[in-house]
Design goal:
It is a single chain. The chain is mainly alpha-helical. It has a domain of 29 residues. The protein has three helices and no strands. It starts with 14 loop residues before the first helix and ends with a helix.
Amino acid sequence: MKPRFLITGSSGGGKSTLIARPAQRGARVVREPGLRVSQGEGPKPWEDRAEFVLAQDR
């Protein structure tokens, strides 16, 4: 099994910047759900909570 890493931190702490380089090199990166929602991607939790939860794993 490949190692997995969880990056946490406050808003504006540089999490997206930190994961940008591995993503550019082909690593699979799952963007933070709040960021995905704020940028208009995928289902919204206030519209369909179940679909929103399922979409986080895709």
